[in-house]
Amino acid sequence: MLFRSVIHFQDFVSRPSSNKNDVVRLHFGLKGNYSFTYRQLNRTYDLIGGHHNIMYSKEFEMVVENHSLELETFGVQFPKDMFIQFTQNGDDQLKKFSDEILKGHSVMLLEEWGAVDNNIQQVIQQIIHCNYADHLKKLFLLSKSIELLVLSAESCKAADNKKEVFIKTKTDKEKLIAVRDLI
Q1: Which residues is 36 bridged to in the sheet?
Q2: Bridge partners for 46 per DSSP
């Protein structure tokens, strides 16, 4: 399942959200500044557009608090068994993640969120603007979803190995993203 959300707020609010499906979620925050509390992990994440991660919990409950008046997110949900089939023979990071899923543990691929780079952005745009119909559309969207999984896993791996050299504070990151969005 693929989903895209563009929300324009009038005010700063908290919104609960939940999902009872047993799926692995690829989450891409494309625009905006927000935080979300992920109940199954008992964690709150403060995020600024241009990030992604892969997460799993049998059920998903969160509360989103917007800190900007526009948010854009994109997501892919893989049925748990399909995700395991795709990743169980992957690199060590994906194997460890898949093992935690098989144990029924709620888990994020990494604590450090990956950056939405040009390759990821391009695939998301290809999905959003897909012109195929019927069976070809389903095949195209499945192939692009798998491509996003690969790009996301690789980007998270790179983020885990990378030390921030130029961006020292959250304020610096906010300023850079604001300039990027302006351009």
Answers
A1: 45, 64
A2: 35
pTM for this entry: 0.83
Report yes or no: 26 and 150 within 8 Å, Cβ to Cβ.
Answer: no
Cα distances (angstroms) measured from residue 145 to each of 52, 150, 163: 14, 9, 28
Q: Rounded to an integer, what distance in angstroms lies between the CA atom of residue 126 and that of residue 121?
A: 9
CA dist list (Å): 80 to 55, 56, 161: 11, 9, 27
What is the tens place of the pLDDT at every residue in 114-166?
A: 889 999 999 999 999 999 999 999 999 999 999 999 999 888 766 555 555 55
pLDDT in tens, 12-39: 999 998 888 889 999 999 999 999 899 9
The model's confidence at residue 1, banded by pLDDT at 50, 70 and 90, is confident
SS (H, E, C) 75-140: EEEEEHHHHHHHHCCCCHHHHHHHHHHHCCCCEECCCCCEECCHHHHHHHHHHHCCCCCHHHHHHH
Distance CA 35, CA 109 (A): 18
Q: Say if residues 153 and 90 touch (Cβ distance below 8 Å).
A: yes
φ and ψ of 92, to 5 deg: -55, -40
